[in-house]
Amino acid sequence: MKKAKKIKGVKAVAMKPREWSDKVISMEKQLEPYFARLGGIRDDAPEEIKELFEEYKKQVLEEAWLL
Question: pTM to 2 decimals?
Fold first, then answer.
């Protein structure tokens, strides 16, 4: 099997992990106890947590386009 040729002037670059805003991080900390194993929020979560989760999803989708 042949070895891959190195291309001059091209360096391997490590990908950065996503960096979310402070708003998303604080929302995630509030929601963490209510996250369901298979995704989403548990059914027994309070109504205010369910509303916060909807805001969280919208904010994550907005920021995902910016990254």
Answer: 0.68
Residues 12-24: tens digit of each pLDDT: 555 455 688 999 9
Residue-wise burial string across 44-65, b where 16 or more C-beta atoms lie within 10 A, e elsewhere: ebeeebeebbeebeebeeeeee
Tell me the two tokens of residue 5.
Answer: 């040729």
> Residue 7: phi, psi to the nearest 5?
-95, 125
What the block records as the tokens of 7 is 């291309």
Backbone phi and psi for residue 35, each to the nearest 5 degrees, phi listed first: -65, 135
What is the Cα–Cα distance from 19 to 55, expressed in whole angstroms?
A: 18
The angle at the Cα of 50, spanning 49 to 55, to the nearest 5 degrees, equals 90
